[in-house]
Structure formats: C-alpha cells, structure tokens
Amino acid sequence: MKNTVEIRWHGRGGQGAKTAALLLADVAFKAGKYVQGFPEYGPERMGAPITAYNRISDEKITVHSNIYDPDYVVVVDEGLLDSIDVTAGLNPEGAIVVNSAKPASEIIPKLHGYTGKVYTVDAHKISVAALGKYFPNSPMLAAIVAVSKVMDKEQFLTEMEGSYKHKFSKKPEVIDGNMKALRMTLEEVLV
Amino acid sequence: MAIRERLSGNEAVAYAIKQINPDVMPAFPITPSTEIPQYVATYIANGEIDTEFIPVESEHSSMSATIGASAAGARALTATSSCGLALMWEELYVAASNRFPIVLALVNRALSGPININADHSDSMGARDSGWIQIYAESNQEAYDNFLQSFRISEHKDVMLPVMICQDGFITSHGVENIELVEDELVKDFVGEYNPEHYLLNSKEPMAVGPYAVSNYYMESKRAQTEALKNAKKVILEVAEEFEKMTGRKYGFFEEYKLDDADYAIVIIGSAAGTCKAAVDDIRERTGKKVGILKIRVFRPFPEEEIAHALRNVKSVAILDRSEMFAATGGPLGAEVTAALYRAGQNKEVVNYLYGLGGRDITVTEFEDVYNELERMAETHEVRDNFKYIGLRE
Fold first, then answer.
1. What is the ipTM of this complex?
2. Which of B128, B139, B278, B281 has the fewest CB atoms in 10 Å of its CB?
3. Are B58 and B29 in contact (CB under 8 A)?
4. Measured between CA atoms, how close is A129 to chain B, in angstroms?
5. What is the pLDDT of residues A9-29, one digit of tens each?
C-alpha cells in the first residue's frame, strides 16, 4: 500500500468525474501501472454529489475498499466545498485540486484547516476556450496528472489521444478540442 | 502470451462470453449486471459472435428460456443480480433438478428491502439450496477465469449441473482493474464444443423433459443431484489444474493466503478478501503476528473436509458473512464452516461476523480489528458473542 497513490474525486452527477477517474486508470494502465478506477454508487441523479476513486501503483493492488486517506483530492465542482469536507483524511504531504476561477488563497479558508498544497484550475475557462462547451473533466484530469506526477506529461498526452480516439470514435470532432484542453491545463497548472 | 488489459468485472465476463460464443443467451437487465447482456448484445450486433440473444420480459422468463434452450441441446447462459435472481427462484430448481449445464453470470447485490443496489451476497446465498454449483471471485481476473472454467464443469458428464459464477456488485463489476486475458484460440480449445448426450431436439431419441415424479422416484432424483455435486468436486479441481497449465493461475476450492503457519484465520468470500490480504501483509510486517486467510471460491458443493483440514492448525477463526440468514445466529458461511470444524473434531474459538450488507464498506483497519479480537479469543478461550457486526452503528 505504501507505494500506491490514492486519489479521490468529488463531483456532481453528469460532470464526468467518474469518466475522468476511469480515463486516469486507463492512461496509467497504458503507462505500465497497476490501476483501479471505481465510482461509489448511490441513487444516480444529475447534480447529486458523487465520489470516484483511483489507486495507481507499481505493484498489484488487492484492496477493494473506498479511499479514506487519499494522497490527492480532485474537486470538479467548487460548490461542493460548502457541503462536503473534501479534505477529510487527505494526506498533508499530498495536494488538492479545485475547479475554480479563484486563486488558491480564496479556496483555502473553506478547506477545514488543510495544510497541504492547494491548486485551482479554471476548467470552465479552459473548456470553453478549447471545446466551446463546458466539460470540466478533461482539464481536471490533466490537472491531477500534473499535480500528482503519476505519469510523464508527454506520455499522458500520447495515451490520452489514443483513449479519446477510442472513446469518441463516433464523434471525432471533439478529440482535438479535448486534447487542446489537456495541453492548456498542463501549461496553466504549475507545480 | 497473455493479453494485458484493464477491464471492469462486467466487461471481463462479457469478454469471456464472447470468447466462448455460446448458442443462446436470454436476458433481462438489472443493475449491476445490466452491462453484461448489453456488451454481449453489442458483440452480436457487430457480428463478432453468432449467439442467439433472446430479449425477454422478466428474469422468470430469462431463466425459463435458458432452460428451454439447454433442454433443446444448446449451450445456454444468462446474467442477473439480486431481485432478478429472486424472480428466477422456481426455475433455478428446475434447471438443477433437470441437470441442465447452464451457466449464470451473477453480479451479487442486496435483496430488497430497503431497496439497495450495492454488493451483498444475500441473492446467491438465498439460492444456496437450489442445487447450483456456486463459484465466487475476489477480483475481475477471477471472475473472468472462473467463467472460462464454468462450462467445462457444468457440461462434464459426471456433473451436468448448472453453475453460478458470482462477483461482487459494483466493487468488481464496475471497478476497472488490470487483467490478463487468454487468447481466443486457447479459450476455444480449452472450453471445447458442447455435445449433449441426451437432448430434446434429437429426433432419434424422443424424450420427456421435466415430468412429474411421484414419491416413489423423487427422493432418488434428489440423491442423484447430491452425487453429481460430489462428482463436481473432482471435476472442479481437474478443470482448475488444466486452467493453471494454460495460464499459470492456480485455483482450487479456496485460496489459502499465508495460512500455512497462521495462528489466526479469517474465512471470507469475494472482493473483501483482497482488502483482508492488505491487512494480513500489514500485520505480519508490523508485528510479526501470524495471520492468514481462507478465501472461499467454491461454496457449492461445500468443501467441508478440505476447509476443516486447512484450518486445523489455527488457534481461532473468524468467519465473515456478507449476508444474513435470519436464524438470528449469524450468516450461512458461519454456520457451515463452524459445522465443518465440529465434524472434524476441532475445538477452537470461532466467531461469526456480518459485514458489508447492502454495500457497507469494509476497510483494512476493520480487518486488523478482527485479527486483534481473534488473538484475544485464543488467549482467553472466551468468545464474547457467537456473531457480531463490522462497521455497524448501534
């Protein structure tokens, strides 16, 4: 377990947090890692808070529980900070990435005294600029890869292009926009 | 060369079905097993396999149609979960007593109520007396491997019984993990063709299927089912041995994890065994205490003597159940393992825990607490409650 990176995603139903967690598992697998990507299922409805998880390791992973002491947390919807203690159990040596137009200094007061690193990513701005629509999961995925360094950025981009080609085989027009969103995020999030 | 992949448990089972290319698959969707018929239907629509897919209006009908296909001489299977299995109840017994070698992909989920869609073994445990062989998986890999072995067991002439291949709802069915797949050609050779000995559509051998049996015949018929289950034990091990030769992955009635020298053992079924393994590794590394696991793979037929033998040297045992049997005495695995130890003349401290009902999570720390309790029990020779709960709010 010591060599396993644990990531917890907080989002709302319909925002793609689950898809992002599965995509992260996908690319980390292609980078030669042992991976887990799994959502926590409750009553499924648009807008309801959802949690998804990743474990990424160089060794075989057998644990099948949820993640209570993550190394990293990704918050796909800033509004969740008011209702959920997203930093619960979060490793102070790790980091949290929040989708917000605000600087980290304005987010920190809402994080229940979390002392680790705090990053913000304006996924709305990036997504609209790159895709013309608001899909926060690609920017947030790139942000957590940059922050957690679970894999090399160039390898991440190469593998993501393959994943998008597979995932969007019936709508190839969105592949370029998503790739652009990933690149813009990697340039914006300075770790 | 094995194929390295990452798949959810549902994807893995659907892929196994694609590789097996069965004759008939009737199915009705229910969470969390819905994806299995969905993926198989896609394979069929894409022309990748020529399975006859029968959309039906209920699980009662899906099992009935599977039985019909199997009676006709086809290799037939279906998939379901929870209340879907409950709606098949009558047919489960019909399938087993008529000796149809059907395979059922079961994604374990709690039975209602309260309504709950999450992992729990109450569906398959409720069906434990139906005469089906039951094989459980810890991981996506095991769900896939068990499925590849299923028809070899069910269709063996000394067995001819239906097989339920079980995995935990959402935890493995929807969780993506690394997996090694077997090449199509190897699977084809391993599973082989199904050539039924007796079947309804054989014009040269007219026969009746499922007739009435008067009291003078019924009991012998039940005895014959038990004989077939006894035979299944031998066949399950033979098939596992052959599977190991092909893949290098070893299977038996159960997995013994660091049990050789263990003083304290947990007996468990399904995905939580993986979490328990992390607790065992952690305790052994941190404290040197000898803790181990007996993870049940085959629950029906119940490998009573083998389980007792594997536990002969441990000082205390905790048996963990992910379903109630409402005897107000604990769970079904607890009852059967305790009976196995008693019949083997073993006198040791045994406790039964209920955990994970309706998807309640179980953590590494909670397993560590169980091992602490086992140590206390062995030292004091005192079992405070014969059954208790993990992670329950009182």
1. 0.94
2. B281
3. no
4. 31
5. 999 988 889 999 999 999 999
